[in-house]
Amino acid sequence: MSTTNPQSDAPTDATGRPVDRARVRRRSKQRRRIANVAGLMASLVLTGSLYSVLAPAQAADDTTSESAAEAAGRELYERSCITCHGENLEGEVNRGPSLIGVGEASVYFQVHTGRMPLVRQEAQAPDKPTIFSDEEIDQLMAYVQANGGGPTLPSGNLRDGDLAEGGELFRLNCASCHNFVGEGGALSSGKLAPSLKDTTDLELYTAMLTGPENMPVFGDNQLTPEEKRSVINYIQTVKFQADPGGAGIGRIGPVAEGLVIWVVGIGALMFGIFWMGSKA
Amino acid sequence: MAATATAPGAPTSRLGKAATEFDDRLIVAGPVRRTLNKVFPDHWSFLLGEIALYAFIIALLSGTYLTFFFDASMTEVPYEGEYDPLRGTEMSAAYASALDLSFDVRGGLFMRQMHHWAALLFVAAIVVHLLRIFFTGAFRRPRESNWLIGVVMLVLSLLMGVTGYTLPDDLLSGTGLRIISAILLSIPVIGTWAHFAIFNGDFVGTEIIGRFYIAHVLIFPAILLGLIAVHLLILVKQKHTQFPGPGRTEHNVVGNRLFPTFAGKATGLLLVCFGVVSALAGLVQINPIWLWGPYNPAQVSAASQPDWYIGFLDGSTRIFPAWDINLPGDYTIPALFWPTVVVAGAMFTVLALYPMIERKVTGDTASHHLLQRPRDVPVRTSLGVMALTFYFWLMLAGGNDVIADKFDISLNAMTWIGRIGVIVLPPIAYTLTYRICLGLQQHDREVLEHGIETGVIRRLPHGEFIEVHQPLGPVDEHGHGQLAYGGAPVPKRMNHVGGARRAIRGFFTPIESPAAVELEQQRDGRELAAGETTRELTGSGRPSDGGRPSDGGRPQDARD
User: Fold this and answer.
1) A154-243 to CATH, choices 3.30.565.10, 1.10.3720.10, 1.10.8.60, 1.10.760.10
2) Contacts of A279 in chain B (CB under 8 A)
3) What kind and span of H or E run contains A193?
4) Which CATH architecture has domain A66-152?
5) Chain A residue with minimal CA distance to B109?
6) Nearest to A262 among B51, B84, B124 (CB)
7) N or C: which end of chain B has fewer CB within 10 A?
């Protein structure tokens, strides 16, 4: 055992020329000590000078530009979001994505639809009643926007677009997940494209702009702001349009229709022929 | 003229005289009399096929109205009609005319919805009718040919549905057409040729709507009408089957004459069908094509489903694994081939050949005019329920994304539910049905042997409690009934054999006074309560000791 141990090999070698070895060792140790001290001094000086150049400027920015809204937003963030999105909005592995650059549009959509804060990690954040007040949402938006920037909320009339063009764009870009008229649909592994029944114009716009959950981002190069307004116009117009043919039965087509013909149609006729049978 | 003597029995009314003149020339009195006197069994389940017939008539009439306005052309036109969200959009003339039909033609939307609901009802009624024929063994010799014709009509009705679904050329029907095209292409060797023959080239071409239109409004309906005529003529020639029961044999038909009773019923049912379809058409929106948008091969919507009767094919496709077979030399048999062409082909082949298969397996080649109750043929009944379970599970899988969405279930889980269920559930259904059939038979036999449970509990002198049973007929020295098991319904409750007041007549509201019924029954001496009060308690309640609950409860013929 001892012959194969490298640590036990050293003393047997040293017994050959002990004086030479000791001298060399002492000299190199001295040199190393001097080099260490010099290096430490140099790095301290460098750090100090860098700090004196950079730090005061940043400190000055923090104190002057963080508005009351951003400060309040930071407080909300540190209470409700920090666990998954990290201390500096950098995100946490396996918990939440980085929020640097997502912009206030994303914060608006996620928080206003109640998707954030998240209840638990699952396939997709479901929408639920909003937890924060409008004022608190504004504060969170201000905080996230101030720390990384990103897409901002649109202004003006969000339905200011061509109806027919909006329909064409909707069928091309949205219907494959959200169904012909925004009834929603299932995606793989428990993910889903939600129904657009209860969404507001601003939620639709910010969703297109930021691509929440499994939705792709429709940036202003994919769908121009005018096209987004057309799509919103189509969704909202069709949503509130009456069903000229009678009860809409979910507007999902054949599945509901099949259910109706079997339950109502065949059901009523069975009743009819039982009645006739009883008259025999 | 007025002085001409009239022969004895000659008609004196103006109508009668006109009829005589008519008959002198055409000699139809004999056949018409025979036809009007033809007897139809009056069981309610014999009306199921009629629902299909009436649904077809409604579809035919409403469809004719639609042809006045529909333009089966694939020429691209900009839409200029009433519906705002599509105005200015480029679309085929077929879709534009379907929109005009819905919004600009008076009554057009109602007629379109009526046509579509009638079509759904048509296939549904065919299926229910087919189940009645299957489970009662009405397809047995000599009626195998009519069964075959029925299966052909079912397939034709599916083709009618598929072509009709395609005609409006909206995004939903275009998606369906793309799948039809893919199914055609998946057939080995002939697929590409068949596709080019039908579409006149690659998908989508400029011909297909026009071709489907002619198939839908002329070819398929003409064949269907011919087959319906043959179906009914064979029925008349072979006469109806009937359920076994008192007075019913293999050589007679018990029921009502065509005129007036059956004709009245049939007319009534026609009007009820019309009413139900009209109510649906007026109250429930079906296939809102304006919401779907014009067909564009680049677009597709979530939850694009076929009408319910093709749902089983969609389902089999959704749950079938992606097993493409790649052969050397760039030949591929796509996975789509198995769940659509092979599964559907196998299902309809087995369905069509079932009478022959059963005849072969059971060796029963005799002619049958009396039906069987499902419980008396447990193997067939269980096979039928097994097949139904298979079919139903495929149909459910066809809507699995809608179910996943509406009930918040993972779509992947739904796919696996479909895959496992379609293999595991049919055998379970077979076993359960088999046990239920045997159980029902067992109960019939028990009632025949021991009588009906009266609910009257007697305590015997030595302390034993027994329930008094009402034998259905003469009993032997052990008190056991001597009636043989005949495959006919057995009365199971005392009021089935007149042991209680009969039900007051009237379906919705009583049409007779309960007091009058009581008086009438007392007069007839079959009222239970009256008998009970005067009857002496016997020492033993056993039937063999004469312990019958009521002498007034005369057994009566069972009604079905």
Assistant:
1) 1.10.760.10
2) 265, 507
3) strand A192-193
4) Orthogonal Bundle (1.10)
5) A245
6) B124
7) N
